[in-house]
């Protein structure tokens, strides 16, 4: 058995208006504090938590956030080194860094390569200034191309960009320009996510007041089908509901999630899944550090998955992927349900498996609900 690691870096310089992730600006953690002050012993705490994890070999490590690229490479490298020393890494271990294109320089990128990173994912979101403004994103769109070029120059083997579609005020042509600009970059992978308006965010408040309006479902569907078409035309194949890549550049870490393999999440609010047990950490970074330095557990809650839950999750996750669902894993009732969708062009019924078509991906959640009801 293997064990992937997710490492959560819970810091951002500024909170984006749509974001409800477990991230904090320095001033939210301590009045007048700098990033250096609030994060100076954070890696020490992460290494303390690592002591509780199983010692299985590691095929992937993913540093997410927050903005991991705000943290010096030498500090992130301490985590990689300790995992390597303690667990061992596979010969092709994928080690990913999420990065804000404004937060990297050539020197920083070189230092990340030196400590072991080989894959980087930039938060691009859009090339349209008015879309970035609604999202409260701070980066300059021109810096994405510069960051990608520098990352390739220093030796990153795989480069991805994250895009968001369905922002209030974004047209189909706006989205086309964003996707075409992304595909013109020297990248290997694109993730494209529909904007979800989360309760309690600045964006949710703006929509509730009527300052902004969400696009309708038809436009959202057109946006999804457009990114799928443009990626396929440029040699990036769809391999998961929201992800496209060149051959051999699929994100192995996320595939571990979708296949329900074992992973351990290090950091406040991080979730883990080990041998059909799911657990998650306390959310606040200060409490997280205090408990670890006191020798206490940081697990907030846990659950053991039942046979029914495992079966339902296998369907929910498997249907998202290009391999689809094996007929042998489905009941006759489920196959009949899928056959009806097949008659309407939403799924492809092959001899041994069932795959979603592009239009079927638009209603994946609905299909899953019917299969697992």
Automatic annotation (TrEMBL):
Coiled coil: none annotated. Residues 1-237 form the Radical SAM core domain. The keyword Iron applies. One of its GO terms (cellular component) is cytoplasm. SMART domains: Elp3 (SM00729). Keywords: Chaperone, Heme, Iron, Iron-sulfur, Metal-binding, S-adenosyl-L-methionine. InterPro entries: Aldolase_TIM, Coproporphyrinogen-III_oxidase, Elp3/MiaA/NifB-like_rSAM, HemW-like, rSAM, rSAM_sf. One of its GO terms (molecular function) is metal ion binding. CDD domains: Radical_SAM. One of its GO terms (biological process) is porphyrin-containing compound biosynthetic process. Belongs to the anaerobic coproporphyrinogen-III oxidase family. HemW subfamily. PANTHER family: COPROPORPHYRINIGEN III OXIDASE (PTHR13932), RADICAL S-ADENOSYL METHIONINE DOMAIN-CONTAINING PROTEIN 1, MITOCHONDRIAL (PTHR13932:SF5). This is Unannotated protein. It comes from freshwater metagenome. The lineage of its organism: unclassified sequences, metagenomes, ecological metagenomes.
């Amino acid at each position: 058995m293997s064990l992937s690691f997710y490492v959560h870096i819970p810091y951002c310089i500024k909170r984006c208006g749509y974001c409800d992730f477990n991230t904090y600006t320095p001033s939210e953690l301590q009045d007048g504090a700098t990033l250096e002050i609030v994060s100076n012993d954070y890696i020490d705490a992460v290494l303390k938590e690592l002591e509780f994890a199983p010692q299985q070999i590691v095929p992937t490590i993913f540093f997410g956030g927050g903005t991991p690229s705000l943290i010096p490479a030498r500090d992130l490298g301490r985590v990689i080194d300790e995992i390597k020393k303690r667990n061992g890494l596979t010969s092709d271990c994928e080690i990913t860094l999420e990065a804000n294109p404004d937060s990297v320089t050539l020197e920083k990128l070189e230092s990340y390569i030196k400590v072991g990173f080989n894959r980087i994912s930039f938060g691009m979101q859009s090339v349209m200034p008015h879309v970035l403004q609604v999202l409260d994103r701070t980066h300059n769109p021109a810096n994405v191309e510069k960051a990608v070029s520098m990352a390739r120059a220093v030796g990153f083997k795989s480069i991805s960009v994250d895009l968001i579609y369905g922002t209030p005020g974004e047209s189909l042509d706006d989205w086309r320009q964003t996707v075409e600009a992304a595909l013109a970059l020297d990248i290997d992978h694109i993730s494209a996510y529909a904007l979800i308006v989360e309760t309690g965010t600045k964006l949710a408040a703006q929509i509730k007041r009527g300052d902004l309006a969400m696009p309708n479902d038809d436009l959202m569907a057109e946006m999804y089908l457009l990114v799928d078409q443009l990626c396929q035309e440029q040699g990036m194949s769809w391999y998961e509901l929201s992800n496209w890549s060149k051959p051999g550049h699929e994100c192995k870490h996320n595939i571990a999630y979708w296949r329900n393999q074992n992973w351990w999440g290090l950091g406040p609010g991080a979730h883990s899944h080990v041998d059909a047990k799911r657990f998650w950490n306390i959310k606040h970074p200060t409490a997280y550090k205090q408990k670890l330095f006191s020798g206490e557990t940081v697990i907030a809650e846990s659950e053991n998955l039942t046979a029914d839950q495992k079966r339902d999750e296998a369907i929910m996750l498997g249907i998202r992927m290009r391999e689809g669902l094996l007929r042998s894993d489905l009941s006759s009732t489920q196959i009949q349900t899928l056959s009806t969708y097949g008659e309407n062009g939403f799924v492809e019924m092959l001899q041994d498996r069932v795959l979603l078509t592009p239009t079927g991906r638009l209603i994946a959640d609905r299909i899953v609900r019917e299969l697992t009801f």
